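Hi everyone,

Forwarding the result from last night's run.
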Amino acid sequence: MIFRPFHYFDTGCAAYLLGCGTLGKCAVVDPQLRDVQAYLDFAAAKDMRITHVIDTHVHADHRSGGLELARRADARYCLHESADVAVPFTPLRDGEEIDLGNTRVTVLHTPGHSPESICLLVKDLRRGTDPWFVLTGDTLFVGAVGRPDLPGRARENARELFASLHEKLLTLPDDLEIFPGHFAGSSCGAGMSGKPSSTIAFEKRWNPLLRASLDDFIDALANVPDKPAQMQQILSGNRTGQRD
């Protein structure tokens, strides 16, 4: 498997390129508009074709490069089927498997941060059938979880997030690596570590929100950072595909 994180330390964001080097198929997850050429260049350097471009949710803190990258790579632009956008996309469903050759990606619908949020469970058939890692988007961070207030209905969304964490992610193997969509410096959650990856076991042991009761979890998520600057403008651009 080819796996390449792209870390943006100025904003605390992460994007990922992953796929099968043998068959030359890959996907890019949560790409940024400012770095579309970098994803194309890396794929080309590895003799890989980008077949899928996936946003784990409609981003509120930065302009997605999903549509532009998909257009330039002649790839599918993918979101969860519930995404409220005005652009064409390939709908992803809970439990669906994306075939990237020896790399297989299973979609986990994990609403809470936003209704359409997903995580992506990745396995490499050359290693075996057990999952290798999970891209957790804005659902689970190192030391924190995604904020539930951006779409409104914060307490209702926090309840959904609690269920997504406990019913989907925390049931995964303890030794599974997690690679989130953000780390310290982002406004998409409070208390994030500067460490860009972790494991399920480490988060169970050290992430205080994963040990909280439902009521305490909901109350704790009332304490969130200020909303991202120009949030409505960014959301509008990502939903309609219009440039600034």
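The chain has one domain: 2-225.

Cheers,
N.
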